[in-house]
Every structure is written in C-alpha cells, then in structure tokens.
Amino acid sequence: MNVFFIEFRDPLFGIIVFFVLVFVITFFSYWLARFKRKEDHRHLDKFLKQFNTLPSQSELKVLITKGELSEKSWLLLAHSYAKNGNYEKSIEIYNELLKVGDKANYRDTMFLLGKTYFKAGFLERARQIFLEILKNNPRTPQALNYLLLVYEYMRDYPAALEILEPLEELKKDIKTDSAYLKSLILLNDLDMSTDVKVQKLLEIYKQTNQLTYLIFEYIFRVNPKLAWENFDISKAELLVDILWNIDKKDLNFDIIMQNSYLRELYTAKGYIQKADKSSTFELDVLININKSVNATLSFEYICNSCKQVFPFAFNRCSSCHAIDTSRVELSLVKDYHKDFSEENNSFQ
Ligand SMILES: [Zn+2]
Fold first, then answer.
1. Rounded to whole angstroms, how far apart are CA atoms 255 and 258?
2. 149 CA distance to ligand 1 centroid (A)?
3. Rounded to the nearest whole angstrom, what is the distance from the C-alpha of residue 303 to the centroid of ligand 1?
4. With contact defined as beta carbons under 8 Å apart, do 311 and 299 qualify?
5. How far, in Å, is the centroid of ligand 1 from the Cα of 135?
6. How far apart are CA 273 and CA 186, in angstroms?
7. CA–centroid distance, residue 129 to ligand 1 (Å)
8. What is the pLDDT of residues 208-263, one digit of tens each?
9. 302 C-alpha vs ligand 1 centroid, how far in Å?
C-alpha cells in the first residue's frame, strides 16, 4: 500500500499539483471564454432586435415626450413608416406630436395625419381631420383637395362636388374634376334610365372633350351602336382594350373601315383582312403571325402624369390622383381562352 502513497515532500507530489493546477486553469479559462462569447452574442442579438421590433405606443409616447429627437426627425420617421406601408406607427407618431409638438406646426402635422388616414383607408377619420383644418383655415387648398378625394372614395359624389366651389374661389382649375364627378353621379344613379344616362354622358363628353375612357367604356357596354356613332375615332388608341373585347356582332365596320388604326386592330383580331402591316409592333406581329399560333393582346395602364403602371384600367390615378391620365400599353401573351375553348370542343 505504501507504494501508492506519496508524501507531500516527495518531488512527484509537486509535479502532480502543478498539472492539476494547469488543468484547473485551462478548464476555467475555457469556460470563461465560452461564457463571454455567449454574452457577446446575447448582447448583439438584443442590439439588433431593437431595429427589428417597432417601439410600442407607450414607448413612442415616452420617446417623443423626452424630446431627445427634434420634431422634424419624428416627422421624417413617420413619413418613412407611411411610405413602407406601416400606417399604424405613422399615425401614432403624428398623434403624439399633436399632443406635445410645436403649436406652429400643428396644422401641417394635422394635414399629414389626415393624409395618412386617407392612405390607410380610414376615410371617416380623414374626413374629420380635414374638416377640422378647414374649420380654422378655410382657405387651405391641399386640405380641400384631400377632402374632395375622401368624399369621392366614400362615394358621396354630391358632397365632393360641393368642395369644388371653394376651390374655384381659390382660382383652381376645376373643369376636369367637375365633369368627372358629374359623370360619376350619373353612372351611380340607380333611378335614371340607361338611355337618359347615355345622353347626359354624351353631353358632358361634347362639352369637355375629356373622360373618353370613363364615358365610352359605359356606352360601349350598354349601347354599342350609339357609342360607335358618337365616338371620336381619332381617340381609338385610348380605348384599345375596350375595342379589342367588343363582340363581333356589335362592331360597326363602316366606321372601322374609315380609320387605319381600327382596320389594323380588327385585322389583328382576325375579324377582317384589311391590313397587311401596322406601325404598332404588337398589332404588326398579330397581323403577320401564323393564325394557328395562340397569341393575343394583354393590357397594362400607365399614368401619364406619374408614370405608375397598373394592371387595371383607371379614371383617377390612385397614386397621384390625376384624372383622365391613363394610357393603355399593349403586350403579346398566350391566348388561354382559345386554348380552353379548343380543349372543350375536342371533348364534344
Ligand atoms: Zn398618376
């Protein structure tokens, strides 16, 4: 047994103690480094998290009240939130700024809040904000313009029409807005007969020579014969999507034959053979393509004013709110309708 027993004076004892100490120090330094790395990660995660999560309403309240950031910085932040579609945060900032912000900017902040409510679709709240601005400052054209849009989106067209009066007093051009709202009132009148509506719409068209798409989209739908008789064929390109989709039985070939664009359009459609080329690329391809190829036209709508592209037709641009600025862009696509009807025929 004494063989295994080492006395503390033995030099071997000192060596063993040395190695034990080395082991303990290495072990602790390893765990310390590991712990520190974990802490660093946690700290970094926490730091990055504050950029991913948005401040809550109460946090915002504290931050704005503290006044560490200038009012302009908060306005810029609210604007960028709204631009990214986070209207809720933008509205919270504007509301807090209205409570504690500089009274000199009160009206501007109110206007921005109203605009954000409008964009977010809270039309009633937007209406109240713009009315509040106009109560104290009736000659604010920006607020009047937005109030008109709010009423239009609420489909309260007579109220929107009333807004044009003060705008006219402020020397704003209201001709297009007036014709547009009057046309919308007619189109949405459930008690008026179709014939009277068509006549009144044609009167507006003849007076203004505007709103071609809005008016003729309706007339081509309810009375194609009258539409062809009153349609200014020099504006055919504006209505190319409507003209392309009209039933063959509703076409007026006497009028079509008078205009080269219409001849090219309906030759491309395959209804007539009266053109062998076109200056419009898409029509030229369709005229000269092998008829067994399933190709047709597809349409996109560009606002001439702000250049925004929409997949659907519009009369007032939802981006810049300009009226009658839509331009139709053509493109060639596969004709799925033809594919579908051929498949159905093959089962018969
Ligand atoms: Zn636009």
1. 5
2. 14
3. 5
4. no
5. 30
6. 39
7. 24
8. 999 999 999 999 999 999 999 999 988 999 999 999 999 999 999 999 999 999 99
9. 8
Q: Domain-by-domain residue ranges, the chain? A: 1-45
Instruction: Write down the number of H helices and E strands in the chain.
Output: 17, 3
**φ and ψ of 316, to 5 deg:** -120, 125
Q: 261 C-alpha to center of ligand 1: Å?
A: 27
What residues have a C-beta under 5 A from ligand 1, the ion?
Answer: 303, 305-306, 317, 319-320
Which pLDDT tens digit goes with each residue over 274-317? Answer: 888 999 999 999 999 877 788 899 999 999 999 999 999 999 99
Range in 122-126, 144-148, 290-294 the model is least confident about: 290-294
H or E segment at 260? helix 260-269
Q: How confident is the model over 163-205, as pLDDT tens digits?
A: 999 999 999 999 999 999 999 999 999 999 999 999 999 999 9
Phi-psi region of 216 (alpha: psi -120 to 50; beta: other; left: phi over 0): alpha
| Amino acid code (one letter) for 241 | D
Ligand 1 centre to CA of 309 (Å) is: 9
Strand, coil or helix: what is 259?
coil
List, in order, residues 6 or more apart from 5 with CB less than 8 Å away: none
pTM of the model: 0.77
DSSP strands (E only) in the chain? 295-303, 309-310, 326-334
C-alpha 193 – ligand 1 centre gap (Å): 33
Three-state secondary structure string covering 188-238: CCCCCCHHHHHHHHHHHHHHHCCCHHHHHHHHHHHCHHHHHHHCCHHHHHH
Question: What's the gap in Å between 319 CA and the centre of ligand 1?
Answer: 5
3-state secondary structure of 58: helix
Tell me the CA–centroid distance for residue 156 and ligand 1, in Å: 22
